[in-house]
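Here is the promised in-class demo. Please do not try to memorize the tokens; focus on the logic of going from shape to residues.
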């Protein structure tokens, strides 16, 4: 339960007032519940003509006997004045009234908990999403997307179904048990002390059964993450799966994972299913023992209980059984929910390897140059990706990066917006180390156009205006014209309000690329990063996109990763990467004249 209290301490504080009201309502509910059960005693005494008449008022003291005698005085007065039948009706009406108050306050207590439960689940989802947005890219290279989705969906739902659904039991059941036990203690302290001995023994036995639930739940939720990862991979690679006739292989792989999940869930649910029958069986044993012990007290007159009081006492004890069962069920559910919460905390507690400065400097505008100074970088210790990179990129110049795949070009540009941090050396803009700038300030200076354009399942207008606040229709259309996208947009079903599908699936590759260029144009950043923006296009699309890129790069500092060397002939400087180093640099003509790596690459493409 310590883990549960930690979770509640983290997420309950915003709802303190509702928790307080719920607790108060549940206390009142329990008090009126005790009174409604206590009405059994006078009813039974009148029915069996076992009522001990009290003819004079009793001086008030706060103990069970005085309260009982005072109540008996009024019952005696009403019985002698109006008769036994009228007295039965009056007691019945009191029982109905107290039961109405009991159920009404029970509803109010549950009403407050609804807001707490749904609010906490909303807060957890919001925290996970915000954390995912704040974490750097290296975190996601270590985690599978399917498992992250599992934690955001399945694990949060499990917390809602297990921990949050148990709030009713946690805030209500203990209060009911305490109030009912107090009432029982007032009625017979000997019998209640006997109950105090039995209940912990029952709880200990139930706790042993639920001991391994948390571990089994973790295994099950981890396996569900693997299943979701497999589904995500299947949907992403469906074309390749079909092309290589790999349906059978993928189906078998999924079946194996699904079967493992079934076996884990079987073990988990077998233990969980023990909760209700075990608590019922143990509860019956306790009731029989109490009936024996209490019956002995009544028969031998060793306590202050009459037969009618003992039946009312048993009624109160039965009122404890359901809350006790609810606590048992809550314990089992919470164990499963805590395992889900631990998986969620892997994300929430993840430390960012790339930190913003506590007191960032402010770069109002880019005026001079970007400089890489002795930059080293590696994704892991086994292989260094960049080695001693030195490069100055003056404002307004176009720098092209060429080289074989894996030579370090994409890593070079990923370091500039701090998607990753350098291991050694520094990157400066106008003499300021980029690690001294806030992420927002740094990335506000840059626009990105990637080989695979990232678009969202939204309208064309919203995709172009993505990340730009307070834009107008005219500005969006002007950006689309510069990107050679305006004409094809008007030909779509609803123009700029056309929804383009998941990742822009309703558009061709060239159209998607021109929309991503339009988005960069609208942002109007001083620095542009173009990562093989035309490599996957056909000749006609490439021509339109290249024109759009030329329009985009005018009067901007541009860093271009080029696959087709013909597109960067006019670059101010071309840097040739080889095994993480810049091995050649110069203009197109200068590099050709050296007859080095660049010449070989150019010759191969023009063969």
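The designed amino acids, position by position:
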């Amino acid at each position: 339960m310590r883990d549960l209290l930690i979770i509640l301490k983290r997420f309950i504080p915003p709802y303190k007032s509702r928790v307080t009201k719920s607790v108060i309502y549940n206390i009142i509910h329990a008090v009126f519940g005790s009174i409604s059960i206590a009405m059994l005693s006078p009813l039974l005494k009148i029915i069996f003509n076992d009522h001990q008449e009290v003819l004079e008022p009793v001086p008030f003291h706060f103990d069970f006997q005085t309260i009982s005698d005072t109540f008996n005085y009024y019952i005696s007065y009403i019985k002698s004045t109006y008769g036994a039948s009228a007295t039965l009706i009056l007691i019945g009406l009191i029982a109905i009234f107290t039961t109405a108050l009991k159920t009404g306050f029970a509803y109010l207590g549950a009403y407050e908990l609804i807001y707490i439960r749904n609010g906490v689940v909303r807060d957890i989802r919001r925290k996970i999403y915000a954390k995912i947005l704040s974490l750097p890219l290296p975190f996601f290279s270590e985690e599978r997307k399917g498992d992250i989705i599992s934690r955001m969906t399945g694990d949060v739902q499990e917390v809602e179904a297990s921990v949050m659904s148990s709030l009713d039991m946690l805030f209500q059941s203990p209060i009911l048990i305490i109030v009912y036990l107090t009432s029982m203690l007032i009625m017979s302290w000997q019998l209640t002390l006997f109950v105090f001995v039995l209940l912990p023994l029952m709880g200990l036995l139930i706790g042993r059964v639920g001991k391994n639930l948390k571990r089994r739940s973790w295994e099950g939720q981890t396996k569900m993450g693997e299943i979701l990862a497999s589904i995500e991979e299947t949907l992403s690679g469906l074309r390749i799966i079909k092309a290589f006739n790999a349906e059978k292989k993928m189906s078998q792989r999924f079946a194996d994972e699904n079967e493992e999940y079934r076996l884990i869930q079987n073990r988990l649910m077998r233990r969980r299913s023990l909760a209700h029958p075990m608590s019922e069986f143990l509860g019956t044993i306790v009731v029989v023992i109490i009936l024996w012990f209490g019956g002995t007290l009544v028969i031998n007159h060793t306590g202050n209980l009459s037969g009618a009081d003992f039946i009312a006492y048993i009624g109160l004890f039965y009122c404890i059984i359901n809350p006790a069962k609810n606590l048992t069920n809550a314990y089992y559910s919470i164990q499963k929910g805590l395992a889900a919460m631990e998986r969620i905390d892997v994300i929430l507690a993840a430390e960012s390897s790339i930190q913003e400065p506590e007191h960032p400097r402010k770069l109002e505008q880019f005026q001079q140059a970007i400089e890489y100074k002795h930059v080293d970088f590696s994704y892991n210790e086994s292989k260094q990706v960049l080695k001693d990179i030195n490069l100055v990129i003056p404002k307004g110049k176009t720098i092209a990066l060429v080289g074989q795949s894996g030579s370090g070009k994409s890593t070079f540009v990923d370091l500039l917006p701090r998607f990753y941090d350098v291991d050694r050396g520094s990157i400066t803009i106008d003499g300021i180390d980029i690690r001294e700038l806030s992420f927002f300030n740094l990335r506000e200076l840059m626009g990105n156009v990637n080989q695979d354009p990232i678009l969202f399942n939204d309208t064309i207008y919203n995709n172009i205006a993505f990340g730009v606040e307070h834009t107008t229709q005219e500005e969006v259309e002007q950006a689309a014209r510069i990107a050679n996208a305006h004409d094809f947009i008007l030909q779509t079903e609803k123009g700029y309000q056309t929804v383009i599908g998941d990742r822009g699936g309703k558009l061709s590759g060239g159209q998607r690329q021109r929309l991503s260029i339009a988005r960069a144009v609208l942002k109007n950043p001083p620095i542009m990063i173009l990562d093989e923006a035309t490599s996957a296009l056909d000749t006609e699309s490439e021509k339109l996109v290249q024109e759009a890129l030329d329009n985009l790069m005018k009067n901007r500092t541009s860093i271009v990763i080029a696959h087709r060397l013909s597109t960067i002939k006019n670059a101010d400087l071309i840097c040739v990467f080889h095994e993480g180093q810049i091995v050649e640099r110069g203009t197109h003509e200068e590099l050709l004249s050296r007859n080095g790596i660049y010449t070989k690459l150019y010759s191969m493409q023009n063969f």
